[in-house]
């Protein structure tokens, strides 16, 4: 049984998450547990979907129907990460500024979407993980 299709996106998520934690910890000069989640470099979402598309391309070829499905899913996720979720973050900034004078304790998370650089970094992480899995597990 070939577990590489289940393992690859999980490892891409893990590698991207660890990189994001390290980068944010270095930038903030403290452990960045509060910054785990949406947004930041590299994009976990982009890493996950690109790892699957890359693995399918490497193992089955770009002419395989599964690659087309994976590529379509990757486009949807990347567009969502850069567009819709960024708009949600901008709305959170506006809402937080409106309620700043009230007694509201909990602020909305403002960092939701990704920049192009964060998305490209996530895609590169995903492709790298897929290539590593292909080399290590073969097939």
UniProtKB/TrEMBL annotation:
Residues making up the signal peptide according to the UniProt record: none
This protein's record includes keyword Transmembrane helix: yes
Source taxon at top rank: Bacteria
Name assigned to this protein: Acid phosphatase
Pfam families registered for this protein in UniProt: DUF212
Membrane-spanning segments: 6-23, 35-56, 62-79, 119-137
Keywords: Membrane, Transmembrane, Transmembrane helix
């Amino acid at each position: 049984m070939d577990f590489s299709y289940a393992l690859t996106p999980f490892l891409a998520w893990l590698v991207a998450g660890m990189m994001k934690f390290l980068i944010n910890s270095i930038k903030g000069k403290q452990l960045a547990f509060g910054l785990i989640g949406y947004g930041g470099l590299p994009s976990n979402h982009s890493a996950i979907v690109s790892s699957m598309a890359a693995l399918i391309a490497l193992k089955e070829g770009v002419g395989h129907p599964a690659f087309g499905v994976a590529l379509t899913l990757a486009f949807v996720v990347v567009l969502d990460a850069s567009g819709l979720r960024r708009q949600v973050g901008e709305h959170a900034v506006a809402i937080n500024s409106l309620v700043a004078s009230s007694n509201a304790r909990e602020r909305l998370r403002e960092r939701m979407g990704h920049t192009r650089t964060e998305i490209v970094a996530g895609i590169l992480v995903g492709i790298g993980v897929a290539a590593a899995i292909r080399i290590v597990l073969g097939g």
